[in-house]
UniProtKB/TrEMBL annotation:
It is a single-pass membrane protein. GO terms for molecular function: O-acetyltransferase activity. It is found in: Membrane. The chain crosses the membrane at residues 25-45. It holds the Pfam family PC-Esterase. Residues 68-120 form the Trichome birefringence-like N-terminal domain. This is Uncharacterized protein. Keywords: Membrane, Signal-anchor, Transmembrane, Transmembrane helix. It comes from Eutrema salsugineum. The keyword Amino-acid biosynthesis does not apply. One of its GO terms (biological process) is xyloglucan metabolic process.
């Protein structure tokens, strides 16, 4: 403050001198004096304007969200800015999610953003996100919709830094990407049910589509990597809508969609409770896991088949969002979403050391977006005539999930 006061006093004296002697100064001398005065002001003042902004300062400049604001209660509003990336600017979009490349003619589905009631959800900022997760490992654990979510984040972050593709398995289900400038690892771990599972086989060793789940054991495919994970985004849902026998070790608990005599019938939401209870129990009791492990539950993402199911001609050809009065708040998806959250809430009431939990509640948000799916524009030559109303176009409304994710991570910091 003292240097600032001295600068202002000297500036006033200099200004009076210039006015008094204006006629005596040559234009060149006058220009030199003004330039000197300008730069003296910059460097004598207490803060250097050319000093780089640190990551911590940068994050503090980002829009803050009221922690009391419910991010997931709101509506979709028009936004002509569209997505941060395009189907051609992001080279990692799979053809099956590149709806525009596959011939989708409309673009209006790209011109909406989610607006929570009572606050604003900031637009995704790849620089700020990478600063928050620097040195961390983030894993998306779940089915192909979990992979869809990761692919959206990959495209958004690629606007700031080009990642290295460092691992893929033979079936291209488990992937690892690395952002060297931020020492950030982004990966996916494929699992259909989260817990140990086995598909029943017929006499010809062909899969029958009937599954046995053991909620007493966790799927080792993803759990073996959990001790190295800093942030786990967990989601599994769409494989549960089929006949499934649920066990705990040798104990039979019942079956979903079986209708067999002398067999306890389990509803899908009850099955979700059993599985997610086992999952969260494993997280809490994981002694090898990092104490500050962050686990984000992403609730079930709704499908939008109309006039049939996926194998009976169902489609999703709408080109604009629904309003809240057009969705069914008593739907099976909402019941399953409730059962997922109930298990998380039950666990978080218990002592779980420093581990942190959060909900990325997309169910109701995405029930309003029947226009966001590939439908027939998914380029699957083996399934011509079938439509995809489960996964989401890239770019598309699924990008909002990462705006939610960024807000959640900031709240947990």
């Amino acid at each position: 403050m003292k240097s600032s006061s001295i600068f202002r006093e000297n500036s006033e004296k200099t200004e009076r001198w210039i006015v008094t002697n204006m006629g005596r100064l040559t234009p060149l001398l006058l220009s030199s004096l003004c330039i000197t005065l300008f730069f003296t002001g910059f460097f004598v003042y207490h803060q250097n304007p050319f000093k780089p902004i640190s990551d911590r300062q940068f994050l503090s400049l980002q829009p803050q969200i009221d922690p009391k604001c419910d991010l997931f209660k709101g509506h979709w509003v028009p936004d002509k800015r569209g997505s941060l990336y395009t189907n051609s600017s992001c080279s990692t979009i799979p053809d099956s999610k590149n709806c525009i490349k596959q011939g989708r003619p409309d673009r209006d589905f790209l011109s909406w953003r989610w607006k929570p009631d009572g606050c604003d959800l900031p637009r995704f900022n790849p620089k700020a996100f990478l600063s928050m997760v620097q040195g961390k490992k983030m894993n998306f654990i779940g089915d192909s919709v979990a992979r869809n979510h990761m692919e959206s984040l990959l495209c958004l972050l690629s606007r700031e830094e080009t990642p290295k593709d460092i691992y893929t398995d033979d079936e291209d289900r488990n992937r690892i990407w690395y952002f060297p400038n931020h020492d950030f690892t982004l990966s996916t771990s494929w699992t259909k049910f989260l817990v140990a599972e086995r598909e029943r086989r017929d006499v010809n060793n062909t899969g029958t589509g009937l599954f046995d789940l053991d909620i007493g054991k966790i799927d080792q495919g993803w759990s073996k990597d959990l001790p190295n994970t800093d942030i786990a985004i967990i989601s599994a849902a769409h494989w549960f809508f089929r006949p499934i026998f649920i066990h705990r070790g040798d104990e039979s608990l019942g079956c979903i969609y079986c209708n067999l005599p002398n067999m306890t019938q389990i509803t899908p939401e009850e099955g979700f409770k059993l599985v997610y209870s086992a999952f969260f129990k494993h997280i809490v009791e994981c002694e090898k896991c990092k104490e500050d492990l962050v686990t984000v539950l992403r609730t079930i993402s709704p499908a939008h088949f109309e006039n049939g199911t996926w194998d009976t001609g169902g489609s999703c050809s709408r080109t604009s969002p629904f309003g809240e009065n057009q969705i069914d708040l008593e739907s099976n998806e909402m019941k399953i979403r409730t059962s997922q959250i109930e298990q998380l809430e039950r666990i978080t009431k218990q002592d779980h050391k420093a581990k942190k939990f959060a909900v990325l509640d997309v169910t109701k948000v995405m029930m309003m977006r029947p226009d966001g799916h590939p439908n027939g524009n998914w380029g699957n030559k083996w399934m011509k005539g079938y439509n995809d109303c489960v996964h989401w176009c890239l770019p598309g409304p699924i990008d909002a999930w990462n705006e939610f994710l960024m807000a959640i991570i900031r709240r947990l910091r």
